[in-house]
Amino acid sequence: MFTPRAHNPGLAALLTLAASAFAAGTTLLAKAIGTGALGPALHPLQISQGRFIFAFLAIGMAALIMRPGFSRPDLKLHTARSALGWGGVTCMFAAASFIPLSDATAISFLNPVFGMMLAIPLLGEKVGPVRWSAAIIALVGAAILTRPGGGTIAFGAMLALGSALLLGTELIFIKRLSGREGPFQILLVNNAIGVVIASLAMIPVWIAPTLAQWAALIGIGVLMALAQTCFVNAMARADASFVAPFFYAALVFAALYDALIFDVRPDATSVLGASIILAGAGLLAWREARLKTPVVTQRPL
């Protein structure tokens, strides 16, 4: 969980690709747990709790070994950020039970779009016509993926949209925290508070997981910790505008996992909607690079 200072774009790209593979893997495991593939289906609230518990244990063990320096955390900002992150993660895990992983992942790329839009009233940022155009393009792609009138698929897509909105709002708080505290501290405090919120929320729906489900829950936490570690270190080795596009590979990994494990392949609507979302998100990333302004991109769930 170190944050190296040496500028190394090649390694940053590889770390981001690894982060995208790990992040897509968490959604795959959540789908397996939530659809009954590994035993009686667990509620998304219980899956979310497992994600926070085991991610916190993994990051906490790293902290004990590395003993990084910590400053006094802003608990109000951390609590708000963690609540939004928990809500976004839970909605994403629920969405994965209803729609293809590629659709859920594509819709998640709206995070920075929502973050940009919310930065106007919350951070006082000004947004020009190019960035508004990028947002509109991405939202058109999301509208296609919701498949209006599609019943279960439309419901799952709305859950994914809710996840993107919550995680996009979380980006506002990440921006505020990133200038005050170190990345390791932010991750550790976030997951610690997330454990408390997730544990309280899942009490009414908890059932005993099977051994396979316990293994998958541990896998979700470990993969998430690895994804966050890779992403944080990638951001430390290259500019955010360079790193962000490589995380779009999560869409490829999600489609590959879904095809190999669940024999689900993207249809023409999925490909069209995802392509439009990627075009909008890519335009937004390009514009941010041209403006040379710091931007917090989508982080792994």
Automatic annotation (TrEMBL):
Residues 1-23 form the signal peptide. Coiled coil: none annotated. It is found in: Membrane. The chain crosses the membrane at residues 47-66, 78-99, 105-123, 130-147, 153-174, 186-208, 214-235, 242-262, 268-286. The keyword Transcription regulation does not apply. Residues 12-146, 155-284 form the EamA domain. The keyword Mitochondrion does not apply. GO terms for cellular component: membrane. InterPro entries: EamA_dom (IPR000620), EmrE-like (IPR037185). Keywords: Membrane, Signal, Transmembrane, Transmembrane helix. It is a multi-pass membrane protein. SUPFAM superfamilies: Multidrug resistance efflux transporter EmrE. Belongs to the drug/metabolite transporter (DMT) superfamily. 10 TMS drug/metabolite exporter (DME) (TC 2.A.7.3) family. This is Riboflavin transporter.
